[in-house]
Amino acid sequence: MKRGFGSDNHSGFSPDVLEALIRANDSHALAYGDDSVTARLENLIKETFGSQASIYMVFNGTGANVLCIDAMCRSHEAVVCAETAHINVDECGAPQRIVGCRLLTVDTPDGKLTPELVKTRLHGFGFEHHSQPKAISISQPTELGTLYTCEEIKSLADLAHSYNMYLHVDGARLANAAVALDCTFKEMTTDLGVDALSFGGTKNGLIMGESCVLLNPDLDKDMLYRRKQMTQLGSKMRFMSAQMECYLESGIWRRNAEHSNRMAQLLKTEVEKVKGVKIMYPVQVNSVFVQLPREVWKHLQEFYFFYDWDEDKDVVRWMCSFDTTEEDIMNFVAALVEIIEERPR
User: Residue 218: phi, psi to the nearest 5?
Assistant: First the structure.
């Protein structure tokens, strides 16, 4: 498959990760997380996010999101999220089916919730006929590639806590947000009052390595059993933990995210030179959303794989990865220009 701009899930994995897996493949180890690698990771997570943090490794991002929601909500409760949130659009109703809770969605212009928007869904408390709002969930960065500032996250955490609710962050691309904002993971989550975090690495150089990180110790109740019931307990967990340990210790999270963000900026710069292409949202991490004529992007898809984001409005998404090269981008833009120039005048 030609390297395209469809998803940062399409790339391979960092060589450092393979070396970590080889080291973890030494002799036998106890299963289900009772191994020395997972024990080291648990300590590393406390160093990274604070002494109260706990981690539960899972197989995928949906598992991380659902496990976090399950820690926060019961089936009669609800989660407020953006209409474009991954938990609403791309998880096939998993939170609703597995947790049983309701999603209260909010339309946003840029994928970001604000306290004012969230408050439109905060009603019906104590009324037995209504699902009870219990959590706010945001993606950092959002599904549109936009970023919450630390101040914006804190305002949402403060709002949630004032209503006896929790704040969850879907951090599948948290590394890209951290380098863009030039802050640590802890400064962007724990220090702002985030209660639960879906912390991922698959999109940034791991083979698999998603996790539910609980930052509020009050939520860490019966999680061993809840993860097992959700079929997210890996028997040879040391191989999942080894990747996440390598991710944090070696600094590949930062190097990879810095590179993919930088490639997105280069793509934006080159695309801005092309007549007839409109960039739809601020390019703040590793994604570029553009609007262009349908016949152009349909033709371009014959050579490069990428997703249409909003086909009705002819908006497509181009994602850069940790292994995207400048040559990849220049060749892609050259193909785009050629298609546009060949269009009938």
Answer: -65, -20
User: Which tokens sit at 161?
Assistant: 């806590």
Structure letter (DSSP) for residue 166 = E
Specify the DSSP class assigned to residue 104: E
Average pLDDT over residues 157-175: 98
In contact, 289 and 110? CB cutoff 8 Å: no
Q: What pLDDT score was predicted for residue 280?
A: 97
Single-letter code of the amino acid located at 308: D
Give the predicted TM-score (pTM) of the model.
0.96
**54-101 pLDDT, tens per residue?**
999 999 999 999 999 999 999 999 999 999 999 999 999 999 999 999
Say which amino acid occupies 172.
A
Q: Alpha helix locations (H) across the chain? A: 15-24, 36-49, 61-72, 86-89, 94, 115-119, 150-162, 174-181, 185-188, 223-229, 237-249, 252-271, 294-300, 326-342
Cα distance between residue 8 and residue 81, in whole Å: 23
Quote the CA–CA distance of 88 and 82 in Å, as a whole number. 8
Mind listing the domains of the chain with CATH numbers? Answer: 16-249 (3.40.640.10), 252-342 (3.90.1150.10)
Shortest CA distance to 150 belongs to which of 190, 118, 116, 120?
A: 190
